[in-house]
Amino acid sequence: MEAIYDKVFTDLKKFIDKSSDDDLKAELYRENLRRKFAIAPPYLDTDGLAVEIKSKTLTDNNAPEGYNYTVGDVANYAYYSIPVRGKVELLEHKIKNILEASNKFAIVNSYLFVEEYYFEKIENNEKAIQAVKAELLKDLNFIHTFIEQIHKELKVFVNRLITEIDIEISAEIERRNRKNQTLKKLNPYQ
């Protein structure tokens, strides 16, 4: 995740290097930089949740972890897709180990996909529906703990961003002042 934050600071420095002298002196410019380089925290857009009922024949490669099965068993599952808004890469990085270790979760094209298994028919089965929903809510609460960690990290990032903007603007003004002074000294007619 540090690479994501470091890239913002690298881009900020390049942007400030190209700024006009008037921009560097304006407080409004600093505010615009804060908005431009802010990172939108990721969140799950549960209003956009979609669900399908699916089934698959289990093999050693696709069986859900933690379930007893025999190769060839058929598992029913609810297949949830939930849009992830904000800086999705932060969530992907934070839960990278979970995504790699589990075939239950995936993030693709800014959507979190979750497979919730039930080994009986789900359709028109109230017990199955309630069990699957309860499992999804448990899993989403787990994901939300990571999102909360990211939000805490972003608070630190924002403070650092404000400081870096001030430092980089001051440094750029100083660089330009030194260059201008040198250019004046090089003029033999002054």
Structure explained in plain terms:
There is one protein chain. With 190 residues, the chain is α+β, with helices and mostly antiparallel strands. The protein has 2 domains: 67 residues; 108 residues, Translation Initiation Factor Eif1. Strands 1, 2, 3, 4 and 5 form a 5-stranded antiparallel beta sheet that branches. The termini are far apart.
SSE blueprint:
Blueprint: H1 2-17, H2 21-25, H3 27-37, E1 43-44, E2 50-57, E3 74-85, H4 88-94, H5 96-101, E4 105-108, E5 111-118, H6 126-186
Antiparallel strand pairs: 1-3, 2-3, 3-5, 4-5
Helix pairs in contact: 1-6, 3-6
Q: Please estimate the helix content.
A: 55-70%
Broad shape: rod-shaped
Report Rg.
Answer: 26 Å
The assigned CATH architecture of the largest domain is 2-Layer Sandwich
DSSP helical segment count: 6
Number of strands: 5
Sheet/helix structural class = alpha+beta
Strand content: 15-25%
Task: Please tell me the overall pLDDT.
Answer: 92
Gap from first CA to last CA: 52 Å
Order of helices and strands: HHHEEEHHEEH
For the sheet with most strands, the description reads:
5 strands, antiparallel
Please indicate the count of domains. Answer: 2
Low-pLDDT stretches: none
CATH topology of the largest domain: Translation Initiation Factor Eif1
The level-1 CATH class of the largest domain: Alpha Beta
Task: Describe what is shown at a glance.
This protein has 6 helices and 5 strands; from the N terminus they run H-H-H-E-E-E-H-H-E-E-H.
